[in-house]
Amino acid sequence: MASTARVTPDEIAASLAELPPLPTSISEVIAACDDQDMTVGQLSQIILRDQNLTANILKLSNSAFYGHARKVTTITEAVVLLGFSAVKSLAISSHTARLLNRPLAGYGLATGDLWKHSLASAFCARRLAVEAHMSPVEQAFVAGLLHDIGKLVLATHMEDVFQEMGADARARRVPFHLVEAETLGFDHAELGARVAAQWSFPAELEESIRFHHDPDQATLKPKLAHVVHLADVMCMTFGVGLGIDGLAYEANPSTLDALGFDQTDVMRLADELGPMFESDAFAVE
Fold first, then answer.
1. For 33-37, 70-74, 168-172, which range has the lowest pLDDT when averaged over its residues?
2. Domains held by the chain: number
3. Is residue 12 a contact partner of residue 154, using CB atoms and an 8 Å limit?
4. Range 229-263 burial, b when 16+ CB lie within 10 A, else e
5. pTM score of the predicted model
């Protein structure tokens, strides 16, 4: 297979403007969550201006991943119980849900598969961050949520070569992102990092997306990249969004040490998280 890229990442990056920008309502919620003078009541009123955002935050607030003993019925309750940082994460997820809910035939992903994998990875990364004593844990949620968004960009521009790359990945039994890099000179992780940069997310979050397949390369916040990597692998193991090469994707040998985990920790977390992936939280409003 040829190693010369048919299009450069810069050329594709120039088309990133085709991705919908963060809606005004989402941007307002993000800004409000970052405002130290913001009150619970004020934030709640900002959220309530957007009906879809309100519905999605309430749905995710009641998912098994948060484990509340009682049902959250109002936005004010959600803000109080979850905190501003978690609400900001859920606002971002509300925007990305429709983007990531599309089918990506080239990756072997049906409608909803990429969204389910992304949201599952987000919750898994958040839980791993708590276990690894990382802060802020919501940064891990957003990184997990966006780690594969480059697939959306690449699938739009590379439809003509996906069949060829898929056949190569299957024949050699290697992860698809390696074939992407060999064929194009870059992979979906690189494009995903550029999306994060376009949306003005922090550099360490951008880095974690860029290196979620090879977290040893991360230098700004290596633990974040390792958390996203492990969350991705665990969700593949659970069978959430396997796609064309899921079973060929293995954990980096250094990741457990980087996070202070051992195999017993991973098995315990898998037992805790696995049943939650049957949740209806993945449905898109």
1. 168-172
2. 2
3. yes
4. bbbbbbbbbbebbbbbbbebbebbeebbebbebee
5. 0.86
In a domain, 5, yes or no: no
- For 145, the token pair is 């949520």
Judge if 127 and 266 occupy the same domain: yes
The residue-averaged pLDDT of 264-283 equals: 80
Which residue type is seen at 228? V
- The answer as to whether 237 is a domain residue is yes
Percent of the chain past pLDDT 70, that is, above it, reads 85
Query: What is the spatial distance between Cα 72 and Cα 6, in angstroms, rounded to a whole number?
Result: 50
Nearest alpha-carbon partner for 143 in 80, 83, 82, 220: 220
Q: Which amino acid is it at 283?
A: A
Residue pLDDT, tens place only, 142-173: 999 999 998 888 887 767 777 788 778 778 87
Confidence (pLDDT) at 238: 82
Whether the pLDDT of residue 5 is over 60: the answer is: no
Is residue 220 a contact partner of residue 205, using CB atoms and an 8 Å limit? no
CA proximity to 103, closest of 113, 88, 91: 113
Question: Domain range spanning residue 68?
Answer: 17-99
Round to whole Å and give the CA distance between 64 and 59.
Answer: 10
